[in-house]
Each structure stands twice: as structure tokens, then as C-alpha cells.
Design a protein that fits this description.
Number of strands: 14
CATH topology: Carbamate kinase
Structural class: alpha/beta
CATH class: Alpha Beta
Number of domains: 1
Order of helices and strands: HEHHEHEEHEEEHEEEHEEHHEHE
Length: 282
């Protein structure tokens, strides 16, 4: 009976989301743990089967770091953004586009839905310019997204699940590493997505980062903006991407614990949810 109750609870959400686009930023444990990788693929395929249009945007930070360490290359982050010289961008592109992206595409196909792998270079999907860290530090070839060519995704999403690696190029053809949270937010805005979901390795946005039980269940954009100057690490670009997506017309953004199996479904299709929901200020 509990399973029936769960299905009945999901029904109004399935009806509400039918035909809508949901952008999912995929990363963390959900990408690295073998069992969670399979569960994530099943969940995304299910979203497609019930009439939604999922779009997956991914990074691959741990994989990039692993390959850089094997090559004895320095690994440095500023305000949650990877410092990226030309060699770092070359490694990032090889790992994200050549390995991680294709692994996700193959997994989705194995679970019943054809997917198409893309990066910012394909169809001029992501046009970027060089950016500095929030404090003004030079972090190298890290791109700020200037333009998203949504036409590419509209065509593909009719029949396939788009899977997008977070690298892109500027007008002169120089390659850039792009923070995957920023990429997901920009893509959600341009697509007019209904929702955006960020998978991470914490329970959500925590009031106290040292206390895993201090999850903030809901917050308005103005509350996030007020708190943002005091937030560091990887949560900062996620929250900034949430704000940018909502100001761009996305109805809500969710930060969800990807260490929990089926976390995307639990957040979307249950009344309580399991993460943090960011919504427009009233």
C-alpha cells in the first residue's frame, strides 16, 4: 500500500510536469558511485517516459582532478572555480567530452532512451568569454557564458535526451572550461525550463556547513542573494546559478543530495521533497 501511496502522491506532479523541460546538473557521488550512476540513468529515462523533457548538464571535476594528478599537474580552486591554464582546459575537454559524456550517453541508452552527447562547441551551443573569480582573481581559461544556442537543443530534445559537457569556446575559437553549475543555469534560462535540479554531495543548502542536519528546505531568491557574500566553496556557484535561472524565468531551482538513490524523483514527485527549493521572491 505504501508503494501505491507513493504513486498517487506522484500523479499530480507528473501531470503538472508533462511536456515541461527539466534541466539536471549531474555531478558528485551520483556520477562516481556505480550503483548511483545506474539509478540516475533509470530516473532520467523515467522522466522521458512520463512525458517530460530532461536535459542533462554535467561536469566531471573528480575525473579531471584524477587525470591532472596522474600527470603531476597542479590543481587549484578559487571560490569553487577551477583555475585553468591551457593544459588544464585540454585535459578537461578530453575527460569531459571524450570519456564522461559518452559514458552517460551509453548508460541512458542501455536503460531504454537514446541520448545525444554534446559540448559547447557543437552547433555553437555555448559561446563564452573569459571571466575572473568573484574576488577578481585571474583563474585562466574559465568561461562565462555569453550565449546559448537553444535551437540545437530544441531539435535534439524532441527525440533524444541531450547530455551536455561543460566546455565551450569564444568567438576566436579558444577553448574554455565552464563551471557546470553556471552552464546548467544558462541552458535552463535559454530553454525556458520549468525546473532546474542540482545534484550535489550534501543534503542541500545548509544553514551551517558543518551541520548536515541544518538543511534549508525552501528559500526565496532575495534570501539567497543576501546570504551569498558569506558563502564559499562549491555551494556558491550553485546558489548563484539558482538565482540566475529563476530571474531568467525558471519557476524553481532545487539543490538535492545526489548520494541518495532516486533523489531526482523524490524531489520532483513527493510533497516533502528531500533538498532545498529556491523560488522567486513574493
Amino acid at each position: 500500500m505504501r508503494d501505491i501511496g507513493t504513486l498517487l502522491e506522484a500523479l499530480p506532479y507528473i501531470r503538472e510536469f508533462h511536456g515541461r523541460t527539466v534541466v539536471i546538473k549531474y555531478g558528485g557521488a551520483a556520477m562516481s558511485d556505480p550503483e548511483l550512476r545506474e539509478e540516475f540513468a533509470r530516473d532520467v529515462v523515467l522522466l522521458k517516459y512520463v512525458g517530460m523533457n530532461p536535459v542533462v548538464v554535467h561536469g566531471g571535476g573528480p575525473d579531471i582532478t584524477s587525470y591532472m594528478q596522474r600527470l603531476a599537474m597542479p590543481v587549484e580552486f578559487v571560490s569553487g572555480l577551477r583555475v585553468s591554464d591551457e593544459a588544464t582546459v585540454e585535459i578537461a575537454k578530453m575527460v569531459l567530452v571524450g570519456k564522461v559524456n559518452k559514458d552517460i550517453v551509453l548508460r541512458l541508452g542501455r536503460h531504454g532512451q537514446p541520448a545525444v552527447g554534446l559540448c559547447g562547441d557543437d552547433g555553437r551551443l555555448l559561446r563564452v568569454s573569459r571571466q575572473a573569480a568573484p574576488g577578481g582573481e585571474d583563474i585562466g581559461f574559465v568561461g562565462r557564458i555569453e550565449r546559448v544556442n537553444a535551437d540545437v537543443l530544441h531539435h535534439i530534445a524532441q527525440d533524444y535526451i541531450p547530455v551536455i559537457a561543460s566546455v565551450g569556446a569564444d568567438a576566436e575559437g579558444h577553448s574554455y572550461n565552464i563551471n557546470a553549475d553556471e552552464a546548467a543555469g544558462a541552458i535552463a534560462r535559454e530553454l525556458g525550463a520549468y525546473k532546474i535540479i542540482f545534484l550535489t554531495d550534501v543534503a542541500g543548502w545548509l544553514r551551517d556547513p558543518a551541520d548536515g542536519d541544518s538543511r534549508i528546505t525552501q528559500a526565496a531568491t532575495n534570501e539567497v542573494e543576501d546570504a551569498l557574500p558569506q558563502i564559499g566553496g562549491g555551494m556558491r556557484p550553485k546558489l548563484q546559478a539558482c538565482i540566475d535561472a529563476i530571474y531568467g524565468g525558471v519557476s524553481a531551482a532545487h539543490i538535492v543530495d545526489g548520494r541518495i538513490a532516486h533523489s531526482v524523483l523524490l524531489e520532483l514527485f513527493t510533497n516533502a521533497g528531500i533538498g532545498t527549493k529556491i523560488h522567486p521572491a513574493s
